[in-house]
Amino acid sequence: MSIRDAGARLVNNHFHALTHTNFRYFWFGQCVSLIGTWMQNIGQSWLVLTLTGSPFLLGLVGTIQFLPVTFLSLFAGVLIDKYPKKQILLVTQSVSMVLALILSALVFTHTVKYGYVMTLAFLLGLTNTFDMPTRQAFNIEIVGKEDLMNAIALNSTTFNLARIVGPAIGATMMAFFGPAWCFLLNGLSFIAVIYGLLQIKTDPYVRQKKKDIGILREIKDGIVYIANHKILAQTLLLVTVVGTLAYNFNVLIPVMTKSVLHLDEKTYGLLMSCLGVGSLAGALTMSLRSKKGPRYSLILVCCTLISVFLALTGIAHSVYGVGAFLALTGLCNILFSTNSNSTLQIHAKDEYRARVMSVYSLVFAGSTPLGNFFSGMVAERYGADGAFIACGILLLAGFLTVVMIFRKKPSVREEQAVF
């Protein structure tokens, strides 16, 4: 068997989403763009910590960046259903590129201030409020339901490969040339994803126009639909708990590096890459088993393990220990998020999918302001190690609370329908 035949067989058996031309354009564009995104993420965190020296103010930037998601996601979901998703993504990706280039110019000209970073973070968060649920709902248009979980897993693979490569490149750029280059390269990286979007040819799903009942009534309609669908409601509550307490790495890892381990930006990049290695392993695992579909039991196991590994990260006071537990946390985070995301998209009706995914964005990313604020406040008083431990304990408590709320198991018929 030739290498080409072996590669084709591997794609057909385990990465079938890549057989769709539209998905390949989208996926390869993301491969480039997300590396730049992670370079900007670590560059912005280190820049703010350098400007202010305050973990609390660093956490506040994260809060401001995700605040629009918290307040506007539900409105975004209604609007996204009414327009072609490809066109929305072209706008959001272009705006994100401009914001990154503005930040790079401010740093290059030595005119950057904390307030400017806050403003740009808010505008980026506003853009992401429309970008995130649109990207989630766009997947099913370019691969269909059968290959949806594989597409989500491959997107996670891209995201987490970028989480490894991006911080490593970003840390090196910061060490030798300063953070401005991280922001510049991120801005230029959006060219790849915009080009990919322009090549995609698809019949967009746009919800048929009905009698105008008002945006608030449409939001209410979506929430009632979720509340009456047990699997959707249960999954979204768990995503809320995990999103609030398990994704504060942009606040806690730089503080852990600087104040607990007493090391520099190279170690910061290394620890972020450890998180990415674990996440990449989780994404590849999900790609290989995506044909089996999402499993709720795996979601429960991952919630437990994430809480344990967060607490152990706080207890470990060596680079090797912190790096190892971050890798394990990243592995479980991706297993959890991929299963949760797939469960929601597969079982939401077409006319509700964008609204369901906007709620997903709200509870997953929109809960981050609260988590960033909480973790920054705890790290300010008790250190990053104390914040990691607190997040792990509270995550376990929140997870058990959700399990108790839904302690009645679904019937065999319902379980078969879902899984």
From TrEMBL:
The chain crosses the membrane at residues 56-76, 88-108, 176-198, 236-256, 268-288, 295-312, 318-336, 357-375, 387-406. The keyword Lipoprotein does not apply. It is a multi-pass membrane protein. Keywords: Cell membrane, Membrane, Transmembrane, Transmembrane helix, Transport. It holds the Pfam family MFS_3. It is found in: Cell membrane. Residues 17-410 form the Major facilitator superfamily (MFS) profile domain. The keyword Transport applies. Signal peptide: none annotated. InterPro entries: MFS_dom, MFS_trans_sf, TM_effector. PANTHER family: INTEGRAL MEMBRANE EFFLUX PROTEIN-RELATED, STAPHYLOFERRIN A TRANSPORTER. This is MFS transporter.
